[in-house]
Amino acid sequence: MDQKRQRQPGERGFGIMMLGLGLFLAWQAYGIAGFEALSSPGAFPMAAAAAMVIAGAVVVVGDWRAALRDRPRLAETARAFTAEITPSVVVIFAGFVIGYAALLDTLGFLPSSFLFLFAAIHFLHRGPVVLSFGVTLLALTVIYAVFRLVFQVILPEGIVPEREIMAWLGGLVSGGAQ
Amino acid sequence: MEQAFAYFTIAWLDPSLLLLVAAGTFAGIYIGAIPGLSVTMAVSILISFTFSWEVNDALCLMVGIFMGGVYGGSRTAILLNIPGAPSAIATALDGYPLAQKGEAGQAIGIATVMSVIGGFLGILVLAIAAPVVSDFALTFQPRDYMLLGVLGILLVGSLSGESLAKGVMAGALGMLIGAVGLDPLTAQERFTFGIVELWNGISFIAVMIGLFGVSEALAQLHHLDKAAVRQQVSKIVPSFSAIRKYLPLSLQTSGIGVIIGALPGTGGDIAALMAYDHAKRVVKDPEVPFGQGAKEGLVAPETANNAAVGGAFIPMLTLGIPGDAVTAIMIGALYIHGLNPGPMLMIDRPEMFWFMVGNLTLANVFLLIFGLTGIRLFTKIVECPRGVLIPLILLLSVVGAYAVNNSVSDVYWMLGFGVLGYFMKIYGYQVGPVILGVILSRLIDENWRRAIISERESLPDFFLNLIASPLSAVLLLAVVLIFVSQTPLWPRRRSPR
Fold this sequence. Notes:
Mean pLDDT of chain B: 85
Low-confidence stretches of chain A: none
Strand content of chain B: under 5%
Low-confidence stretches of chain B: none
Number of strands of chain A: 0
Distance between the termini of chain B: 54 Å
Oligomer: heterodimer
Structural class of chain B: mainly alpha
Shape of chain A: flat
Number of domains of chain B: 1
Order of helices and strands of chain A: HHHHHHH
Distance between the termini of chain A: 63 Å
Radius of gyration of chain A: 25 Å
Mean pLDDT of chain A: 87
Number of helices of chain B: 23
């Protein structure tokens, strides 16, 4: 972690974005109570935002100096950024994750998680469909049993009438016991 | 003394109580290991089951869960870089690099033994010096808490990696994330942009899982074709010489853990981070640099967070003040069971004090047993092909973030921070300072404002009283020394080779 790291494509842009975020948050922090009092609700956020802006400026200046030295071409940087920082596997997987998060509430935990896991495992592992299906089913069963059944964590129900199924299963078990 | 010993051994000699402590510790380890399932949540759920139980039975189970849960967070921190609990954040910094080298078994072994050592030291201080420590903790004024928070935030220096400026930037961002929501003192909106869902702030767990778990999963996509690292599980139990080597450090960090744990409002997470920083300062020549799998980086937080458990019981049992969220729930449970935790507990019901001490000791013994078993099975997780492991980490992260508040917005926050963490890692920004900022934000903010209000907004009075109080002066001196040591003003001596 402490060893010298090679400069990555897009690093300067990221630094500028973080500095921009710091400036925006500083402006927002000022809007809370201005310089009203040392104990105002905005005092601490303003101090933190100021620290972020100052440190951000140091980072951006450092990046700028390195850019003047290395003189990278914009087209080259963009190509390297796409190839090294956001390769297709990262972009596609991120797409799966965003789709999963979007469907979680509407479809419910079980169907959306099944779709995500199956698609992601099949895409990344590139094994036989049966293997991806089996791993997905096993993993989902274990996670559902631990979170939903043992620890009673409420997960999005969506289109699956979980409570009705649980009640029916409960009735079946108690009926069987009688 | 004899009576105290008799109370101490109640749970040791009663098979049903013994079993409850064992079950609690076992459950705690596995609850702690799963991101999103917190010890606080487990204890609060269990309280509803134990209302009708005998008080002794209820306490045995809860103490076991507390002790096991604080340790359990280290498992996923080491194996997957997802701290199962906030107290395991610092453990991930060196534990995960060890797993990447195939030494997960050894790392878990060290974490277990050191957690047990820290746990025993915390209990020892609870048993012999509880009233003294609680009196000391009560002398802390808001300005001292603020200085403690500032001391904590200076850890940014040791968590920053290659660039201090990037570390400060990340730490400040964390503090701003921690400030989102309604101001705790005036209920004024801060960074909410008129969105009601932001009134309660951004879930700390969502930030933690996103920055550690999701970002790591995304980063691992670059190494899909790399074969999974085979884990060596032959030397799980650390040798006696290794334990002896780390003992001085573990004693120091246990001390940090007990003190931080005993302070109301601070807990194992802050204790572990401070202990990690302490280790970085005092260990001059680790076998492997910190952040790349230094065993000292594992020893320090693991001893401190378990020592903090004993520390957290001190204000709870002697003053009736909770040291952290779990002890707050336990105080509630004690009230429900007709007990009155506070100064009178030691006088009216001394047996309860010694019974608790006995339970904690027993839970620590079970921690050693359960902690050193099942490691082979656990380490198999990291040997799983990346193409299967990465989607599973993502699913677990989503469920963990959702479980905290049953809210999909927490999942979105987690994913957002996951993407941010991914870029931060690539561009040399460490994610540790962000978490540090989030954890310490409230502590510094609230106590700064309380302190300055008590001085009627007068900065000169604030500084005068700061220097006049011995405790504040010592803390201020520590802040100044640590700050200066991170600047070029500090003479850097090279060790002769």
